[in-house]
Amino acid sequence: MKAVYILSLITIMCWGCTRDFESLNADPTQFTEAAPEASILAAVKNMNARMADYNTTKYWDLGHLLCQQANRYDVTDAGMWQTFYQGVLGNLNQVLVNYSSDTLYNNRVQVARILQAYAYSILAGNYGAVPLYQANNPEYLSTIMFENEDTVYSYVLTTLKDAAAKIKLNGDKLKYDAVYNGSLQNWIKFANTMRLKIAIRTQKNMGAAARQHIADVMANEANTINSEAETAKMSFENVNGNENPYFIKYIKSNQYFPYAPGATGQAPKLSEFLFTVFRSYKDPRLSVYYDTVPTANRFILTDTLTSMADDSLRVVTYPIPYLGQPKAGTKLAGWTALAGLPDMVGTSNINSYSNANPIIYQVGRPLIMLSYAETLFLKAEAAQMGLGGSQSAEQYYYAGIDANFASWNISTTLRDEYKARDGIKWNTTGIGFNNYLSLTNANISADPYVKIWVQRWLNYFPDGGFDCWCLERRTRVFRLPPHTNPGGNSSYSANPTYSDVPGRMSYPISVVNLNPVGYQSALKELGVSRTDDYDIYQELHFAKPYTVPDWNNEPASYDYRFIQKWYGNNIQDLAVAAQRDGFRYVITQTYHP
């Protein structure tokens, strides 16, 4: 695919608008004729650019993948509404309006419908009730009503099924395709796998209909994503305007340290809770997903080690190469047990926390929309439900881990060692570390669903922050630590000093001001008990009911075991590591217990 041609198509899409100003009833923001490739390409690029932006400003924090200092738990709209309804659905609607009746464009119309359903699944997962049937319809300009979340998901599932079935492999081609390079078979597989994903997400609210979709997809696995080559991903390249969005934000802008020395912005940091999970199970992905901290900035740990030379203990200090940033950096008033004690983790130098592996900021790195590994975890859950599959849930589960490790080029030796550990191995229980405030832990039960969900979460780094958030709300697989500086709409909650993961995004103020009747219909569909939608814990229909703990009265106490014994239990192991890795350690005390 030629980048210059792609950008030319987008330029044509943006400026090929109608110049017929004699018709005052025509919407001047809508073009009347454009090649379907231009509209589809613009929709895909607009959607993935916005999803990448929301990763950096919202989803990474909500999904506990990375921490961006200024973002916190902000769930206010920051452009998604406009981007999706205009830049994504508006473009796709042009394809449907202009070409649906022409059989020469059948396949391109079906691809547009698949992407339309995909976009609506994201909108419903963010907001709940959204405009569907009256959206982008010139007959409804000042008052656009909202559809119930269940109605939107039903539309998504039936559209994905119907569009996939109507693609004809010997028919017209999508000539310029930034996702699948024109492969119609892969678009069919994406649609069916996406249907499996949404049906699994909506089991609670869609009931038997969701289970039927799951069984239907699992009965024909050949039409799902079945290899890494079939992973859905948006391509990027080293051409101005078509670079990876993370590269544009963190590298090209020259505004973020450490990628721009002296910059005031800080690159996103490893999340403390995810770090605790990685440490609990010696997960080799820690060193693949995240970068080591430069030696000069490393956190200096105080530890007590044994010695193979005698029976005395050594109190030592040494630097550790990774550290996760806590959500609870501000301490709540009720945590009196912490008073007067040093907070080794929460108050350390910001540069002591680990950055993401620079590989995710590469200029040409694609953005993952739906991966092969995720597909296997979806199938594992479907098989565990008894809804079909050519393999057992256990087999799909291990294959999903294999696929994830392979995608990051992690050795099979490290992979197999990881899969054999308690908590990761099927039918075993894992006892993980407490987080550093002893409020939560990284335990993994023997429950097969829990194992599948944990690995899905770990697989979503770095592009699947939205899916992490959906998974958390649907399953509550972990008791996540609270955010004690949450931001967003937290000031509207009963306890504004802390927040659990929010339940939904709030609508933009433009909806409130410009579509008041529609906004009231949205509040009705959401079932809110107030006159606005600013309750951060408002549960969407697919989410598991959840009661927010009274975190202020939880018995917080520091627990640093998750970072202790980094290089082993004895001083000799530390000495070997120091010589190998080039760092210094200091023995501050020797004593007999």
Automatic annotation (TrEMBL):
Q: Which SUPFAM superfamilies match?
A: TPR-like
Family matches, as InterPro entries: SusD-like_2, TPR-like_helical_dom_sf
Name of the protein this chain belongs to:
Starch-binding associating with outer membrane
* Source organism: Chitinophaga ginsengisegetis
